[in-house]
Amino acid sequence: MSLSRNREVAKAEHVQGGEGYILRDLLLQGEQLHGQLTYASTITLEPGCSIGVHTHTGDSEMYFIYQGTGTYTDNDESYPVQAGDVLFCKDGETHGIANTGDGDLKFVAVMQAS
Fold first, then answer.
1. Nearest to 71, CA basis, from 62, 60, 61, 82
2. Is 67 helix (H, G, I), strand (E, B) or coil?
3. How far is CA 15 from CA 7, 29, 34, 77, in A?
4. pLDDT tier at 1, thresholds 50, 70, 90
5. What are phi and psi of 21, to 5 degrees?
6. CB burial class (10 A; 0-12, 13-18, 19+) of residue 30?
7. Where do the domains of the chain lie, and which CATH numbers do they carry?
8. What is the pTM for the complete model shown?
9. Taking the mean position of all CA atoms in its chain, how far away is CA 45?
């Protein structure tokens, strides 16, 4: 069993060339995931903040949005997203996300090595 408790939320600025900063609560990582995933975390983007469009090389990533609204970029296409949406970026593809709403945009991010 892997139990993660009393974690600290880390602030990271201009992630992947994005605007502002993100707040990341790294739920599990490395050995805690027994080689099944790279990491699982919650991400909070305050209004106007984003994760810049970037390419995944050697891994894939899933986002599950559970609060707020934003704009997701999938390769060359951008579209609105909201709570309840699930997004997936495959190895070799690009993605990014921006909070275009009035409140916090919160989502779970799960990354898996290819």
1. 82
2. strand
3. 20, 19, 27, 20
4. low
5. -145, 165
6. exposed
7. 10-113 (2.60.120.10)
8. 0.88
9. 9
